[in-house]
Amino acid sequence: HVSVAASAGHAALPVHRPPRVAVVSTGSELVAAGVAPPPGMLPDSNSVLLAAAARSLGAYVVRRGAVGDTAATVVAALDAALDATWPDGAVAPPDLVVTTGGVSAGAFDVVREVLDPATRAATPWADAVTDARLVAVGMQPGKPQGLGRWRGVPWLALPGNPVSAFVSFELFVRPAVDRLRGAVDPRRTLVPRVAAEGWSSPVGREQLVLVRHVAPDGARVVRASGARPAGDDGRDGVPAGGSGSHRLSALAHADAVAVVPAEVGAVAPGDEVRVLLLD
């Protein structure tokens, strides 16, 4: 592109600077990557996942993981992000805040507590949140989602299950970052593929399945290693059998996400499915 511009006689061009994205991972059960977790604790993989995904789009990223399950600690982390030092040396607010975890309806879902007008009404940060919405999206995984502005900065609040966080990034965060970096039409394109195996799907909710290509011609897909349809036990799309490492390993094996319409109860071998291709 710069070669074409130079050959056309342009010495300078208007450009967009890299977007600044702050990533915050919540959960008192989290420990930093590389630290052996004691019983009942888990490594913080979400902040690493989302930070890497944002960097792959050309964004500058500041990452904060393992924020405790109290509203005060979440508020402190959000305020700290407003005065972050970025990789280019600038000290400035982010263009976008992305949090993961705490948006369901459980006792420790503190991001929901910070966003919800009913629970923040009498707090010191009541006026810090504007344009807030807590929604149940008709998709699986990734049903609970939140959005708003923190002291004027756009904020997307994703669920905490790693696969839920990943597909939520692809559907909601990626288009936002693309728009911030100057893309005119940041929508993703669905392409047709053929299912090489079958699986069940929850009627009434659009299912997002991590898949990988298996045919030399790139026409057929199977579920990525470890992926299986998520159960409906209300825990951010975590299957009834748990959220073990097989769920995370599917992320490493996937090269696409199959999007199964809400009215489809099962995908049979040979069925056409539409997929989002992963970079």
Describe, in plain words, how this protein is organized in 3D.
The protein has helices at 2-7, 46-56, 71-81, 110-115, 117-120, 162-180, 245-253, and strands at 20-26, 30-31, 42-43, 60-67, 84-85, 91-92, 96-100, 129-136, 139-140, 144-150, 153-158, 190-195, 199-200, 206-213, 220-223, 256-260, 266-267, 272-277. By secondary structure, it is of the alpha/beta class. The strands form five sheets. Strands 4-1-7-11-10-8 form a six-stranded mixed sheet, with helices on both faces. A five-stranded mixed β-barrel has the order 12-15-14-16-18. α2 runs parallel beside α6. The two termini are 21 Å apart.
Q: Which short descriptors sum up this protein?
A:
five-stranded mixed β-barrel; 7 helices; globular; 279 residues
Order of helices and strands: HEEEHEHEEEHHEEEEHEEEEHEEE
Alpha plus pi helix count: 7
- Indicate the radius of gyration in whole angstroms: 20 Å
Helix content: 10-25%
The biggest beta sheet reads: 6 strands, mixed
- How far apart the termini lie comes to 21 Å
Describe the global form.
Answer: globular
The helix/strand class is alpha/beta
Output mean pLDDT.
Answer: 89
